[in-house]
Amino acid sequence: MNALNPYCAKVIQHLEHKYPWEKPFIQAVNEVFLSIGMVVKQDPLYGNERILERIVEPERIYMFRVPWRDDRGNIQVNTGYRIGFNSALGPYKGGLRFHPSVTLGIFKFLGFEQTFKNALTGLPLGGGKGGSDFSARGRSDHEIEKFCHSFMNSLYHHIGPNTDIPAGDIGVGAREIGYLFGQYKRLKIAWEGGVFTGKGIDWGGSYLRPEATGFGAAYFAEEMLKTRQEGIDGKTVAVSGFGNVAWGVVTKITEMGGKVVTLSGPDGFIHDKEGISGEKIDYMLAMRRSGRDRVEDFAEKFKVDFYPGEKPWRVKCDIAFPCACENELDRKDARALLDNGCTCVTECANMPATQGAMDTLLESGILYSPGKASNAAGVACSGLEMAQNSSKIRWTREGVDRRLRTIMTDIHKTCLHAAERFGKKGNYFVGANIAGFIKVANAMIDQGNT
After folding, report:
1. Is 129 a catalytic residue?
2. What residues of the chain score a pLDDT lower than 50?
3. How many angstroms separate the first and last alpha carbons of the chain?
4. pTM for this structure?
5. Which residues, 6 or more positions from 393, have their beta carbon under 8 angstroms from its beta carbon?
6. Helix (H/G/I), strand (E/B), else coil: 425
7. DSSP per-residue letters across 170-235
8. From the centroid of its chain, how far is CA 196?
9. What pLDDT score does 449 carry?
C-alpha cells in the first residue's frame, strides 16, 4: 500500500487521539486515505475546503434506550443507534444490525464504508447505518416483535423516504423489517413504502433482495477474472459464513459452474469436497432459520468434514469469498490462501480482511476486491426496490437479476478506470476508494459548508 499523504496522516492522527477506542472505524478511514493521497495532493481544493476533516465525521448520530417486556413479564433494556454519516449524494441509506457485539464505533465504521459503497452504485444515495445490541437468539417471535416496536418508537422521528432509509443487516431479516415497518406505519398514520427496503415481496419488496449481495459479488468476481481471460466455470471456491450473503454466493457460483467447498460459522467450518449444490444449498436456509448459528449441523446432515474453531482459508481453492464478518481474514489466513493456489479474493462482508491481510494480498498481485465494490449489489437492489415503489411497477426476478449484473459490471469498470487514471492499473482497492471519494467529496464542495 502507499504511505499516507501528510494531509491524510494529520487527519488520521486527530481521529486516533479523539476516538482511540474506535479501531474498526480508524482502520476503515486509514484504508480509504491510503488510496486517495494522490487525489488530494493533485487538487488543493479538497484541503482548502477541509473535506477530509468533514468526511470522517458523521452528520448526525442518535442513541436511544430501547425498553421492552419479555414473555415472562420482565423489562429488558437495550441500546439503539442510528448514524446518518453523509447525505451529499442523497438520503441516508444503510442497514440495521441487531447483534450483541455492536457499538457506536462499529456503526461509524459501517456508515463510513456505506457512504462510498453507495456512491459506487451510481444511485442517488447517501450513507447511514444503525441497529441495536439486541440478540434474537432464544427469543420468541412475540418478544422480537415487542423489541422491534419499542425500537421504532424512538427511531421513527428520524427516518423517512427522503431522509433516511433503513434496510436489513445481520439479525434483521424480512420478519424484523415487517415488525419495524408495521410500527412505523402505525406511528406515522401513513403508508410510506419507501422508508424501508427489504420488505416482503407482497407489500413492496424486490425479488432477489436476500441473495442480491452474494449474486453481485459473484458477478464482480466474474468481471475480475475476465481481465485475465478466465471465468468461474470449473473453479473451486471457498466461502465463509452461511447467512444470506453466503447463500447468494453459493447459489450463483454453482449456477456459473463453480464448486463451493466450504461454509463457516462461529463454531468452525465444514469442507465438502463434492461441492455444495442442490438440497445442500436449500439446507443453508434451514440452518439460518433454526437460529442455532451452528455450521456443524451441515456436517452432521451431509456427513462432511467439520473443523471446530477453525476458519476455511487453509482449504485449497481458486477463489475465496469472505462473507462472514469484519476482520475474519488475517495475514496468516491470507498467506495460507496464497500458498494453496488462490488467485482471486472477493470481499463480501464489510472489511473482512485485517490491514495485514490486505497488504499481503495486494502485494501478491492476485485479483483482490474490497467489499465496498464487490458487495454493493445489496444496496443496489435496495435502490431498485425504491424505484419500483416510486413507479408502482414490479420487475420480474429475471429483470432484477439483469439490472444487478449491469450495475456490478459498471462498478467494476469504474474501479478499473479510476485506478488506471491514477497510475495503479488493476488495483481494485485504490480504484474503488478513489472513485467513491471523488464523487462524495465533489458533491460536498458543490453544496458548500454543510
Report:
1. yes
2. 1
3. 32
4. 0.91
5. none
6. coil
7. TTB-HHHHHHHHHHHHHHHTS--GGG-SS--GGGT--TTTTTHHHHHHHHHHHHHHHTTT--STT-
8. 17
9. 83
The pLDDT of residue 233: 97
Question: How is residue 368 written as a grid cell?
Answer: 483482490
Q: Any idea which architecture 212-369 has in CATH?
A: 3-Layer(aba) Sandwich (3.40)
3-class secondary-structure state, position 358: helix
Closest to 61 measured CA to CA, from 82, 78, 80: 82
- pLDDT at site 293: 86
Residue ranges per domain, the chain? 1-57+434-450, 60-196, 212-369
> What distance in Å separates the CA atoms of residue 107 and residue 177, rounded to the nearest whole number?
19
Domain pair 60-196 / 212-369, same fold: yes
Contact 35, 76 (CB under 8 A): no
* Three-class secondary structure of residue 69 per DSSP: strand
The catalytic residue among 108, 117, 129, 235 is 129
Question: Cα 247–234–302 angle (5° rounding)?
Answer: 45
CATH 3.30.980.10 assigned to domain 60-196? The reply is no
Element (H, E) at 128: strand 127-132
Query: If you ran DSSP here, which 8-state letter would residue 156 be given?
Result: G
- The letter for the amino acid at 450 is T
Neighbour order of strands in the sheet with 319-321: 259-260, 236-239, 319-321, 344-346, 367-369
User: Which of 126, 129, 76 has its CA nearest to residue 103?
Assistant: 129
Query: Position 265: which residue type?
Result: G
| Cell numbers for 81 | 443507534
Tell me the CA distances in angstroms from 8 to 38, 40, 55, 109, 215, one per residue in order. 10, 9, 12, 17, 35
